[in-house]
Design brief:
Elements (H helix, E strand, L loop, with lengths): L12 E6 L3 E6 L2 E6 L11 H5 L2 E4 L2 E4 L4 E4 H5 L12
Antiparallel strand pairs: 1-2, 2-3, 4-5, 5-6
Length: 88
């Protein structure tokens, strides 16, 4: 008898910590810090909206309740991407 293929990895991306300074995101065994200064969209959001993150592709992450999508490149090198959306 042959076993079925393993299921989808549900822990591919996870918010591991939320603080007064920013959030920590764990993706593919790599952790990133996103400060509210560099990623202001997260600062005034409820915890459940920040925790609700989806991985759209290998290096592309989306927060549907906040309507924010970021790539790994933007998170790691935010200074190379100076344009930021304004918070309304």
């Amino acid at each position: 008898m042959r076993s079925s293929a393993p299921g989808k990895n549900t822990l591919a991306i996870e918010v591991t910590h939320i603080s007064a300074h920013g959030i920590w995101l764990l993706a593919q065994d790599e952790e990133f810090f996103m400060s509210y200064e560099d990623f202001p969209w997260f600062k005034e959001q409820p915890v459940n909206a920040i925790l609700n993150v989806q991985q759209l592709s290998q290096d592309h992450y989306y927060w549907p309740e906040i309507d924010v999508d970021l790539s790994k490149a933007i998170i790691k090198n935010h200074d190379r991407f100076p344009l930021k959306a304004k918070i309304i």
